[in-house]
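Researcher: I need the complex structure. Ligand is adenosine monophosphate. Inputs:
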Amino acid sequence: MATQSTFSFTNRFYNAIPEAYQHAAASVFADNHLVCINDTARNDLMICADHAKSENFLAMITGQQLPPNGFSAAQVYAGHQFGQYVPQLGDGRALNIGELKTDRGEYYELQLKGAGITPFSRHGDGRAVLRSTIREYLASEAMHQLDIPTTRALAITSTSEQVWREQAEPGAILTRFATSHIRFGHFEYFFHHNKKATLNKLADFCLTHYFPEQNKSDNPHLAMLQAIVERTARLIAKWQAVGFTHGVLNTDNMSILGLTIDYGPFGFLDTYQPSFISNTSDHTGRYAFEQQPSIGLWNLNALAYTFSTWLNTEQIRQALRHYEPVLVSHYNELMAQKLGFSQWRQSDTELIGQLLAIMAQQQADYTRVFRQLSYVDEHQTSFERCQALLDEFADQQPIEQWLNQYKTRLRDNPLARTERVIRQNQVNPKYILRNYLAQNAINSAYAGDYSEIARLQTILATPFDEQPRYNAYAKQAPQWGKELNISCSS
Ligand code: AMP
Ligand code: MG
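Model: Output:
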């Protein structure tokens, strides 16, 4: 296990393209303390437990002391926000402090979110409130454990400052990490500012470090664009299958590695509602749950335009054409797994569509219904074993009819029932980060008790396990929890 003395920090992106950064120092915080640390992530980063308890570590993750060979700078990028091009955004409240190289040879960029103003803060205060750091901390790790590519969270620290939003709130810093935080907006910035040499360097950097396979192809830029298209398609298929709504799918919040990035007003579906809008500032529903697949393509178009530097129109079209088939086939594959089928068949589309329609009509709980499908016994005509599933629906007749079709399909499935149940429970989570659960953890934290954050983190670390002592956390959201307003103000 690495200790502080063997920490190896580098900054490959900064060294290659310093123009992508502006130096920015963290604010001085007189009184910091650790709110929570994620031991799974800490182990993955090979930071030893003792070091994570040290003053030096706290000073590093609050920006008060640079790591060895580290630095402190914000990245510049542009982006399309709600369809409008904004020529300069950048890290308004995220400081990059360096890239950690683990003994396994992996590189992770560390960012401190909420540590202070940067040259890109515009009218913002460079701060994050504890509430939003808790949401990102819990959600990103929950996504990681659900096998959905994402930036991750190492720790939350409190700055013991008051930050003004609609009211005074405690300020906090989220330490997050990812292989890279490069966004579609990075390409847009250098393209639209006519910084061709830098754009070339950016593409070369990405090819060398993140797309080495594509770099070997005859046309590396085309291969890289196609790979980004495919990664994005697969990511969004996973969101749709698990019921995740990002909430602010601007191109500056799209990762070229296909990671879920920048958790703001996100939401996991409680009741199945395809038009669900997780962000109360999104008045037109541009980023509603069901819009995500088409928004993914819209965003890829904005990225692909910057690739006109290297590719002709037909090549760009060729890369973009991969989006829909990859998304649809991955989604089908995931939904077939959720239903316990060894393989997806064309006719399953109708079966899945019917189930979703019944769920939408009756406002059934997305996660609970899928989790309970494994209890269906295809060899029994009665519904004895799936009473709990039926109870998820106010009117049970449509779902009973559907279950009869489902049983017929299951009887034609090569998997034995026991094997199917095991597989289904490995893909249908019992526990998700429902908004109200995050809110309960936030309320406790604002009252000075951080234990609920740790408890939720433990539960969400194994979302597919039964964990019977935590059954209450798998219940339907209470009405107040479905009506929470989550906006961009964080
Ligand atoms: P977001 O919608 O959170 O992805 O943020 C959009 C842009 O606003 C990014 O450039 C952020 O860095 C910036 N931003 C958001 N909140 C703040 C803040 N409190 N202070 C400074 N910049 C911010
Ligand atoms: Mg953002």
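Model: Summary of the prediction. Residues 1-5 have pLDDT under 50 and may be disordered.
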